[in-house]
Design goal:
By secondary structure, the protein is of the alpha/beta class. The chain has helices at about 15-30, 45-55, 80-85, 95-105, 105-120, 130-135, 140-150, 155-160, 180-200, 205, 220-225, 240-255, and strands at about 5-10, 35-40, 60-65, 90-95, 125-130, 165, 210-215, 230-235. An eight-stranded parallel beta barrel has the order 1-2-3-4-5-6-7-8, surrounded by five helices. The protein binds 2-phosphoglycolic acid. The site of 2-phosphoglycolic acid has 13 residues, from strand 8.
């Protein structure tokens, strides 16, 4: 059984002071997580403050939005796995489409970042997704498979099965135009099938959590989670307000079939 996972991606929003206010409000709204996992990824500059505000007893996971693949050295401006681990990061987003689109992130980099996260005991969340042009020219399957095969190169067996993938169609991110579950579910199936091919058995496809991302809101989250293919959500805009994020988490735990 795959445990649902809701992740908030703050992107380039909130100062350290704002992060503390967010955590306080969220912790009032959600005191325990029932049968699901949830976490959020502040910018690097707010990780310490957010971690301190969460404290050690919080049910929320703390994550980062990016990682560099070397552990230390002359790489001005980069942040490494040991640095994130030292701040209490438990997961890290890798290959978010904004990194790919605006910062030239290559498939080969995502692989090095996934490996760096694993090496440092941080759970990588590999983000994949097609552009509108890819979808319009029926390249979606090819693009998703390429991103998966490249990003997960050299990752096998048990390790592959512990991965989390976020499927985020680029055209649905920040546009208010979420994919319909009918559009998302076939891609989630393709991702599972590709994972099985990579792992050489059905284990990875059975165990890997695949989240949907792209204009997820408290209003539409239940529609996505109604499919057994969709194990959670990566949320941008709707995670910035603590009450909205809390509502989303409550809907996700309330509609959890494992609790029925
Ligand atoms: P959005 O962003 O929810 O604002 O569409 C999702 C994401 O980029 O992870």
């Amino acid at each position: 059984m795959r445990t649902r996972f809701i992740i908030g991606n703050w992107k380039m929003n909130k100062t350290a002071t704002e992060a503390v206010a967010f955590v306080r409000r969220l912790s009032e709204e959600v005191t325990a997580l029932d049968g699901i996992q949830a976490g959020f990824a502040p910018p690097f500059t707010a990780l310490h403050a957010a971690g301190e505000a969460l404290g050690t007893a919080s049910p929320f996971l703390l994550g980062a939005q990016n990682i560099y693949w070397e552990d230390k050295g002359a790489f001005t401006g980069e942040i490494s796995g040991p640095m994130l681990k030292g701040l209490g990061c438990q997961f890290v987003l890798v290959g978010h489409s904004e990194r790919r689109q605006y910062f030239g992130e290559q498939d080969s980099w995502t692989n090095k970042k996934v490996l760096a996260a694993l090496r440092n005991g941080i759970q990588p969340i590999l983000c994949v997704g097609e552009t509108l042009q890819d979808r319009d020219t029926e390249q979606t399957d090819l693009v998703i498979q390429r991103q998966l095969r490249a990003g997960l190169a050299g990752i096998e067996g048990q390790t592959l099965a512990t991965m989390t993938i976020a499927y985020e169609p680029v055209w649905a991110i920040g546009t208010g135009r979420a994919a319909s579950p009918e559009q998302a579910v076939p891609v989630h199936r393709l991702i599972r099938q590709t994972l099985n091919e990579l792992g050489g058995s059905s284990e990875a496809g059975r165990r890997v959590r695949i989240l949907y991302g792209g204009s997820v809101t408290p209003q539409n989250i239940a529609d996505f989670l109604a499919s057994e293919e969709i194990d959670g959500a990566l949320v941008g805009g709707a995670c910035l307000d603590p009450v909205s994020f809390a509502t989303l988490i409550k809907v996700a735990s309330g509609s959890n079939p494992t609790k029925a």
